[in-house]
Amino acid sequence: xxxxxxxxxxxxxxxxxxxxxxxxxxxxxxxxxxxxxxxxxxxxxxxxxxxxxxxxxxxxxxxxxxxxxxxxxxxxxxxxxxxxxxxxxxxxxxxxxxxxxxxxxxxxxxxxxxxxxxxxxxxxxxxxxxxxxxxxxxxxxxxxxxxxxxxxxxxxxxxxxxxxxxxxxxxxxxxxxxxxxxxxxxxxxxxxxxxxxxxxxxxxxxxxxxxxxxxxxxxxxxxxxxxx
Length: 228
Prior knowledge:
globular, nine-stranded mixed beta sheet, two-stranded antiparallel ribbon, 7 helices, single chain
């Protein structure tokens, strides 16, 4: 298994001078540091691949032990391009993917891994226009995931597990995306050609994409102080 962290974006909505993964939470911990501490409990650092772009040197200097891919067009492309780049390097392995701005509990990753097949972390909270939303088919699998979903079940949280057998479908879906698409568009296209991805409800756990300052405040609530 590989872990892929998508960390190329500018993240202008948060108003920080550094890449969002290096944003500090209320306990002093950086978002990326928290993700890595959880991932290292699951796999070796040489199996963690980070796609960088905006101010990439800051991320690479913070964690030189990781594998990196550079999305040179980070300023004019979106996460579909970054994920497609990563999947060229992960061979035929399972891929655990996180957006670089997600703050979650370790149990979120564990819950995805315990579920059969490819999985997507979701909640059943009320959603607004800016959240990526999801809908289910009659069998209870994801059949739509985007900001435009109507009658949404809740939010798709930017943490996904793609099993090796499903990676060819996902690659093909991403190849059909435009440069401006989010990776979720690739998932929707892959669903049309055979991908089955199960929702994993983590409403009872911390799992927050940090897009705005109030997200950052919620993500950092009640976290234990970090050592040092």
